[in-house]
Design brief:
alpha/beta
Length: about 325
């Protein structure tokens, strides 16, 4: 590890550490043209690899949707994708109410950033520091595009007084004195992480004027999950999914898009994916389940998005995700 000062950001490639495997409750979702239903699976149907929607929101301050954050949980190990506002408390709620032990704050030590927009990164100070204060034993490992290392270094500088006080005051920190210091791996695509449970690929996607933006493909022991991040229609996601078990993809309402001012229509068409576009893309990607997230509703609702997707010809299993759903 190469340090960047007394309280700087280290940089290294990393490997995950083994943890105990547990089985927790999950939901199995099925969908038809009329909507979505939830069914409680039997124990044998509970997958080892699950998707937990910690935050499905956008920059809009919707009190029902926290900032973008998704967890891929394999047994009792969590891999976070993005860190929107509220990520640590949403994870703690999932651990307490859904019995997903891997999402306890002390275990939040891996995050994969899709890009550096503020709504996807405002939870990073919380994710880096709060679990440390709550006795996370290891540093936060951060995988992200170029610029991630500078962002994490500025975060630790901004909270330098807090870090010094916790290290030099009366708090007992001997057991995790270095766990405040993020370990950063900047990537530009390809296989970016591997441990005994998962392999993770960063998938370059189109997101307007961002030079580097990613989706991620997780290959677990029993399921493959692809998460789009923010993306305009990207052929790379079709290739990355290619019949994957779960595709989590951002979306905006094609119908309500027509009510937006022209300058915002230009922006959204370059940065995001409409229901019409997603129906075509997902039809070729063929996921076992398509989960909509980061929904730009503009006056419609989840049912409206599902209706638009069906009207556009998508016939696969489909759900418009909400915070704290498990798939």
């Amino acid at each position: 590890m190469v340090g960047t000062g007394t309280h700087g950001v280290g940089r290294r490639c990393f490997r995950g550490r083994p943890l105990l495997a547990v089985v927790a409750a999950a939901l199995v979702w099925s969908a038809g043209p009329g909507g979505v239903t939830a069914q409680a699976p039997d124990a044998q149907a509970t997958p080892r690899t699950r998707v937990v929607l910690l935050g499905t929101g956008t920059p809009n301050a919707d009190p029902e949707r926290s900032g973008p954050a998704t967890a891929v949980v394999v047994d009792d190990r969590a891999y976070l994708v993005d860190a929107g506002p509220g990520v640590v408390r949403r994870a703690a709620r999932a651990a307490a109410e859904l019995g997903i032990s891997g999402l306890r704050p002390q275990g939040l030590d891996r995050v994969f950033l899709t890009h550096l927009h503020s709504d996807h990164t405002l939870g990073l100070p919380d994710l880096a520091l709060s679990p440390w204060v709550l006795d996370r034993p290891d540093p936060l490992h951060v995988v992200g595009p170029p610029g991630t290392e500078a962002m994490m270094e500025h975060i630790t500088r901004a909270w330098q007084a807090d870090i010094h006080q916790r290290l030099d005051g009366l708090e007992p920190r001997e057991h995790n004195a270095d766990a405040w210091q993020p370990q950063v791996d900047e990537v530009e695509g390809g296989l970016v992480y591997e441990d005994d449970l998962v392999r993770v690929w960063a998938i370059p996607v189109h997101h307007g004027s961002w030079e580097h933006a990613f989706g991620y493909r997780f290959e677990g022991p029993d399921r493959t999950v692809v998460i789009s991040g923010d993306a305009a229609p990207s052929e790379s996601l079709v290739e990355a999914c290619d019949g994957c078990d779960v595709l989590v993809h951002e979306v905006y309402s094609a119908e309500r898009y027509l009510t937006r001012p022209p300058e915002w229509q230009t922006y959204h068409a370059a940065f995001h994916t409409s229901t019409t576009e997603l129906a075509e893309l997902a039809g070729r990607a063929r996921p076992g389940l398509l989960v909509l997230y980061h929904q730009l509703l503009w006056g419609t609702d989840d049912a409206g998005l599902l209706r638009e997707m069906r009207a556009a010809g998508y016939t696969g299993a489909l759900v418009s995700g909400r915070d704290l759903e498990v798939h």
